[in-house]
Model the fold of this input.
Amino acid sequence: MKTIIATAQAPQAIGPYSQAVKANGFLFVSGQIPLDPVTGQMTYGGIATQTHQVINNIKAVLAVEGLSLAQVVKTTVFLQSMDDFAAMNKVYGEYFPAEPPARSTVQVGRLPKDAGVEIEVVAAY
Done:
């Protein structure tokens, strides 16, 4: 059984998908890009700024279920350019300073709305 999770505190889905799905003790959060949830506009200013926005969007979705980044067990980071890895990784480390989740990071050809970064997470209840 699954439950669809949604919040106005994070950007609304821009396609036929849910912000998150709760199933079997896990919360699967769809990939977040650096959209401002209030304006719906992209956050620009470099990969560090975009990464902060993405993780804040993830935190907002987790909060709906009373979860935090501490419950995240797996992340997948999609970068438009691996040249941005060090800057993204520095910001990412600020949010996961101890006992970080398992992670994969890949470079992709293009992300929605030409974002520089997209991150999806799985959290455990």
